[in-house]
Amino acid sequence: MNELEKRLFSVLAVCLLCFSVIACGVKQDPMEKVKDLEFSVIAEDKLPEELLGMIEEKKTSPFKMTFQDQGFLYICVGYGEQETAGYSISVNALYETGNAVYIDTNLIGPGPEEKGKLTPTWPYIVVKTENVNKSVVFD
After folding, report:
1. CA distances (Å), origin 40, targets 68, 73, 101, 114, 135
2. What are phi and psi of 5, to 5 degrees?
């Protein structure tokens, strides 16, 4: 091999190495967050009637469900019957990945002033976001 052939071979080898590194970097983990989704927590009086009826049927037990209406996705998480009032629910994360929408919620217990009052409640949350036509994974 002469000097010119050696250089061409070296340049070709470097180009192939670069292309293989770039090609490997293009693959995306389907579980990796693509973007956070904007959402609104919807009050009971603003829910579609059909969805409200479904929630009423399920609210005494823990539930997780979705509902689609007019281009929006409603994600519902219920925590079943609780002995007292004063519970709240936080949305820790709502984001889209390559193949799904992930939601993480947390039930927050009542303060000390509510703990003595035995009034059953059924805390749930309904989150409204754009419908991205992907399955929802509840965390």
Report:
1. 15, 11, 15, 27, 19
2. -65, -40
Residue 88 pLDDT grade (very low, low, confident, very high; cuts 50, 70, 90): very high
Two structure tokens written together for 94:
């709502």
- The gap from C-alpha 90 to its chain's centroid, in whole angstroms, comes to 13
pLDDT in tens, 33-68: 999 999 999 999 999 999 999 999 999 999 999 999
Residue 77 contacts residue 103 (beta carbons within 8 Å): yes
Structure tokens of 110?
A: 């009542």
Q: Which pair of tokens denotes residue 82?
A: 């609780």
What is the β-pairing status of strands 39-41 and 33-36? unpaired
Backbone dihedral angles phi then psi of residue 44, each to the nearest 5 degrees: -55, -40
User: Which band of pLDDT confidence, cut at 50, 70 and 90, is reported for residue 26?
Assistant: low
